[in-house]
Amino acid sequence: MFSSRIRLWKVAAVALTLNAALTLSSHAQNPTPQSNPSIKIAMIEGLSGPFANTGEAVFRNLVLAVERVNARGGVKFGPGTTRPLTLLRYDSKGQNDEALSALRSAIDDGAQFIMQGNSSANAAALLDAINKHNEREPAKHLLFLNYSAVDPILTNEKCSFWHFRFDAHADMRMAALMEVMKDDKAIKRVYLIGQDYSFGQAVLREARRQLTLQRPDVVIAGAELHPMGRIKDFLPYAIKIKASAAQAIITGDWGNDLTLLVKAAREVGFEGKFYTFYGNAMGAPAGIGEAGVGKVIAVAEWLPNVPGSESEAFYRSFRARYPKPSEDYVHMRMQLMVEALAQSIEHSVSHRNPDAVLDLVAVAKELEKANLAFYSQTGSMRASDHQFQQPLVVGVMDRMGSPGVKFDVEGSRYGFRVIHTIPAARAEQPTSCKMLRPAS
What we know:
Elements: E1 8-12, E2 21-25, E3 39-45, H1 52-71, E4 75-76, E5 82-83, E6 85-91, H2 96-108, E7 113-116, H3 120-136, E8 143-146, E9 163-165, H4 170-181, E10 189-195, H5 198-214, E11 219-226, H6 235-243, E12 248-251, H7 255-267, E13 273-276, H8 284-288, E14 296-300, H9 309-321, H10 332-349, H11 360-367, E15 371-374, E16 377-382, E17 387-389, E18 392-399, E19 414-422, H12 424-427
Parallel strand pairs: 3-6, 3-7, 7-8, 8-9, 10-11, 10-12, 12-13, 13-14
Antiparallel strand pairs: 1-2, 1-6, 4-5, 14-18, 15-16, 16-17, 18-19
């Protein structure tokens, strides 16, 4: 039993309340009567080590999403019957072997839905394991819902019927950034830097390709990959970047690596722009400070300063649940993911016996058709590769209170003003997926 080696936290599903209880245990406990069992979701994420803060931030997002479903009574499971969602959490420590051990614990504890995202390497390992498990155990299928692992290969060559990605992949994000950079004619030299694993490599590869297409006049002044989560001092990298005379940095770095990179760039006096995937959170705005105003650019599926009353209402609901500035890390896609799951379960069981075992093939077929409108965000799942399609926005860092910056990030007094919106149809990218589907 692997669960004895994994610290497992669980959100107990409590109907009709927005204050689901969080309990600590060495193994999963079912908080509901046996006649109305909960639907168990396992989050497998790095909750210790250099990226622990990002894992905890994801957990808060998923807690809010699960609480929202349970507050309306849970998932409708046949006429007059509902089942609550239970969120279990497992620490992968950001390592593949630990992620696989956590997966076995989640299976032992009765989870049917696996959620992960903060490492494409971990996602690939989990996906391979889930594919093999589902082949060996056709009566105990698992579904993998991915909220952040954005290596394009996961919905291309490695696409799987059992995997659904709710974040825009790296090529989609890079194309969105390039829609802004192509009009930034002052930029003549760029520096590419990223984390040395599958995702970071994909970002640099796509940056080169997109620059050739969109800005062939731009010189790549330098390009390098650095060890992920192991660099404590980015000053040597920052010195090289400044010496290259680059006017912009393009990076997919995330978590503490990004924070340390922007701090080092500020310390050496780098005055160029940052074109980032994740520069809008996790300490980056505070780390770069006033020097980032008008210079730090980030792409996302949604930002707190997206105009509109619905968007503002959603963000205020998150901050009411998590009021501490250090907890200000919110992503619309994670809310959409849980809503899509609840919707798909309901559609798959609407005409079945409420006591029947959940059919995950039927749930997956409903997820393939998921079409959501949630607060200000809309999106739909593309059945051909299970890549979620949604609008993207690009924002630039500015002072709180400036036009278009009603909300700051993490109490930094800096927020992101939306400068460009990419409709879902234009954000879409082709896929090479050849989906293998289970027999009917």
